[in-house]
Design goal:
10 helices, 6-stranded mixed sheet, 289 residues, 4-stranded antiparallel sheet, single chain, alpha/beta
Length: 289
């Protein structure tokens, strides 16, 4: 962990009597995109909620810039770390501009007025998410893809160094999924924002992640580059699924092909798993073509 880093150390958390996270250690690379994957109910959302201070840990801690987040004033934390939950709810009738403007609340003192800097931050967020034409429309009249871009605009207006997103592509069609992930990558490249998000699609996760994390039963199973983490063995352990992992000729990243019991091509043979070294060699070969 660097001086400006976010990390979970020996973290345990849960709800009621149920422990979901159990002694998890996870440093988050600063200025990179980290994607967390795993089967349903493995603790992905619980981890994000605990790292954003929505959930108090049973043991261990979440550290930001060398200090426990529970020792940081709420307003100061909100200036540094933002969370976009899985299913955010907008107040009825609120317009896009008003919702995005709420991202500036942590920067407002008790007696401070709306400033030019606030106006510029909101305008820039609307432009970045291509929602400026929607500014006066009620949020509840928008499509799912439009609403998701508006919520991301609010997070951009908050202007934090760290952004946590819980399944930001859920319920979106594939074109909107790629659009949202491209937008977050643009944000990371332009501002150096540390992004941590939960995704269900393994292939999109591998394509957009700098750092891929796989969880099993509340514990960290594997972490590293997509080439290191997305392997046949890890897919089998994390999801209980047989698969083949090959290299995407477009991105040079690994992609997972699930193997079911039906719809197999004639004369299909058992494929050898691609390990990290093999994957890197194949990527090199693809890039040489």
């Amino acid at each position: 962990m660097t001086a400006q880093g976010l990390a979970a150390t020996a973290l345990s958390a849960g709800y009621g009597d149920r422990i979901i996270l159990d002694g998890l250690d996870l440093p988050i690379p600063t200025g990179r995109i980290t994607v967390i994957v795993g089967a349903n109910a493995c603790g992905k959302s619980t981890l994000l909620h605990t790292m954003s201070r929505l959930l108090f840990p049973r043991a261990g801690q979440v550290v930001l810039d060398g200090k426990s987040i529970h020792k940081v004033a709420p307003r100061d934390l909100a200036k540094t770390l933002g969370l976009l939950p899985q299913s955010p709810i907008a107040p009825e009738g609120i317009t896009v501009a008003d919702l995005v403007s709420r991202g500036r609340h942590p920067h407002q003192g008790m007696f401070s007025r709306w400033s030019r800097k606030d106006e510029e931050a909101v305008a820039a967020a609307l432009v970045a998410t291509k929602t400026e034409d929607l500014a006066e429309r009620p949020v509840d009249e928008l499509s799912g893809g439009q609403r998701q871009r508006v919520w991301i605009a609010m997070a951009l207006a908050q202007d934090t160094r760290v952004l946590l997103l819980d399944e930001p592509t859920t319920f979106l069609d594939i074109s909107h999924q790629v659009e949202v992930l491209d937008l977050l990558t643009d944000l990371n490249h332009a501002r150096g924002t540390t992004i941590v998000m939960v995704l269900h699609d393994l292939n999109l996760a591998a394509r957009y992640a700098d750092h891929l994390v796989a969880m099993v039963d509340g514990r960290l199973h594997a972490s590293g580059t997509p080439e290191e983490v997305l392997t046949v063995e890890n897919v089998r352990t994390v999801f209980g699924l047989e698969s083949r992992v090959i290299i995407d000729p477009t991105s040079g990243k690994p992609i997972m092909l699930p193997i079911g019991r039906h719809r197999m091509a004639p004369n299909t043979t058992q494929f050898e798993p691609i390990g990290p070294d093999q994957g890197n060699q194949q990527i090199h070969k693809e890039n040489q073509r």
